[in-house]
From TrEMBL:
Described function: Quinone reductase that provides resistance to thiol-specific stress caused by electrophilic quinones. Also exhibits azoreductase activity. Catalyzes the reductive cleavage of the azo bond in aromatic azo compounds to the corresponding amines.
This protein's name: FMN dependent NADH:quinone oxidoreductase
GO molecular function terms noted in the UniProt entry: electron transfer activity; FMN binding; oxidoreductase activity, acting on NAD(P)H as acceptor; oxidoreductase activity, acting on NAD(P)H, quinone or similar compound as acceptor
Designated gene of the protein: azoR
Domain (Flavodoxin-like fold): residue spans on this chain: 2-193
Similarity comment text for this entry: Belongs to the azoreductase type 1 family.
Domain of life: Bacteria
Positions bound to FMN: 10, 133-136
Cofactor note text: Binds 1 FMN per subunit.
Cofactor: FMN
Broad class of enzyme this protein falls into: oxidoreductase
Annotated keywords: Flavoprotein, FMN, NAD, Oxidoreductase
Catalytic activity: N,N-dimethyl-1,4-phenylenediamine + anthranilate + 2 NAD(+) = 2-(4-dimethylaminophenyl)diazenylbenzoate + 2 NADH + 2 H(+); 2 a quinone + NADH + H(+) = 2 a 1,4-benzosemiquinone + NAD(+)
Gene3D superfamilies registered for this protein in UniProt: 3.40.50.360
Length: 207
């Protein structure tokens, strides 16, 4: 990998375990890669404006000033060989910070085309890792809440043209230190089974 785009979506910033695990993957797998970082939670994007909506519905040219933020974010994605998203699950789905990034990046005529068969992605595919942290359990025998994040985010990325997506789930992070450590060890085992992002099973995970 020459260039990696890292989206960090937790309000805990660099202290979030998912963020730290994402950085460990990058440092171990591709230490020489250029890293493009977007901390969407602690450095939030501006809200969508009326000018943006008007430009979007009016099919304004890509260099319209209203598209400046959108073009910056899409450009970062286009230049990357790999995408890594470290995100919490908020209220069963993606947090607001990540949803805003999606609203800027998923743009008709620019990153997807509307066809009679449906929306078709216009971006090149690339290996993508999504690290999802949750205080509770949403998969497996201990699940007590629905998971609208995984299917939604997979569909969003697919609409962009990105289909090589691996999800790693860190569940039960709010159930004490032992549960959090178990979640991190489970994430390491999940990573070991991925095609592009395996860490050594002997890796020491930051707690």
């Amino acid at each position: 990998m020459k260039r990696i785009l890292l989206l960090e979506c937790s309000p805990h910033g660099q202290h979030a375990r998912g963020n730290r695990l994402a950085r460990q993957v990058i440092e171990q797998r591709w230490p020489a890669a250029e890293l493009i970082e977007r901390d969407l939670a602690t450095q939030p994007l501006p809200p969508l404006s009326g000018d943006y909506a008007t430009a979007l519905t009016g099919s304004a040219p890509f260099d319209d000033p209203a598209f400046a933020c959108s073009e910056t974010l899409i450009g970062e994605l286009e230049r990357s060989d790999c995408l890594i998203i470290a995100t919490p699950m908020h209220n069963f789905t993606v947090p607001a910070a990540l949803k805003l990034w999606i609203d800027y990046v998923l743009r008709i005529h620019r990153t997807f085309a509307a066809t009679p068969q449906g929306k078709v992605g216009l971006l090149e595919d690339r290996p993508t890792l999504v690290l999802v942290s949750a205080g509770g359990f949403y998969q497996g025998e201990r699940a007590r809440q629905p998971d609208f994040l995984t299917a939604y985010l997979r569909h969003v990325l697919g609409t962009l043209g990105i289909t090589q997506v691996e999800f790693i789930h860190l569940q039960g992070m709010a159930h004490g230190a032992d549960a959090a450590n178990a979640a991190l060890q489970g994430a390491l085992a999940q990573l070991e089974r991925t095609a592009y992002f395996p860490l050594s099973l002997s890796t020491e995970i930051a707690s």
